[in-house]
Structures are given as C-alpha cells and as structure tokens.
Amino acid sequence: MNIAPMTPQEERLMQQVLKQQSLRCKRCKQPVEELDCYCRHCGKPLRPFMGFWYDHGGILLCTLIAGPVSLLPLWLSRKLSITVKCAWSVGIGLFSAYLLYMLYQSYLLVSQTFSAVLSSAI
Ligand SMILES: [Zn+2]
To answer: Are 73 and 54 in contact (CB under 8 A)?
Structure first.
C-alpha cells in the first residue's frame, strides 16, 4: 500500500486539528477553543490574571487579609479597567493608612500601659 505525501494545505489542517485536540481545560479536561477566556464546561478562567483573585471579590478579600499587597493582583488583573484600578488603588491606600494609624494607636496604648505598670511596681 502506497500513501501519498500530504499537501501543505492538508498538513496545515492536520496541525490545526492536533493543536485543537491539545487545548483542554486544566480542571475538567474538556476541549476548549483557542480564543476562549473561560472554559465552556466548568467556567474556569483559561488565561492568566483572570481568576477570582483578579476580580472585585478577590481584591476586596486580599485587601482585608493583606492590606496593600492587594495592589499586586489589582494591577495584574485583565478583568478590570484602568479607571476601576485607579479607584481601587485610592480605596486600598486609604484603608492601609487607616490600618497603619490604628496600629500606631495600639502601640501607644500598649506602651502607656506598660509604663504605668512599671512605675506602679517601683
Ligand atoms: Zn473546564
């Protein structure tokens, strides 16, 4: 049996089919299209910087847990517009300043308590 060599057009089509077969969702292993941003089967983001931590909820949670560290996922996000990122940055800055102020106030309270305890002990 003799098989004729593939024409360049057939070869391109074959490569395209192989590429599409290799594009699969990492979570559910279902095939996905090359231009898809999210899996059509399970909803997992297929591109970087588009997951939960790069959206409003994730950035809010990150701000509450880690304060200004949330600026990193905020500015890496591909989901949010530049206006939204600027608004979030102002909010995160104000919240961080408030946290710093409260930390300083608690330091003052603790140091006053310690000096009062020490002076009464002597
Ligand atoms: Zn999936």
So the answer is: yes
CA of 78 to the centre of ligand 1 (A): 20
| Bridge partners, residue 45, by sequence | 38
Helices (H), the chain: 8-22, 56-66, 71-76, 82-121
CA 49 from chain centre, in angstroms, equals 5
Phi, psi (deg, nearest 5) at residue 121: -75, -30
Query: What distance in Å separates the CA atoms of residue 112 and residue 55, rounded to the nearest whole number?
Result: 42
pTM of the model: 0.64
Separation of 36 CA from ligand 1 center, angstroms?
11
Q: Ligand 1 mean position to 37 CA, how many Å?
A: 11
How confident is the prediction along the chain (122 residues), in pLDDT tens digits per residue?
A: 567 778 888 888 878 776 766 789 989 999 898 888 889 999 988 888 888 899 999 999 999 999 999 999 999 998 899 999 999 999 999 999 999 999 999 999 999 999 999 988 77
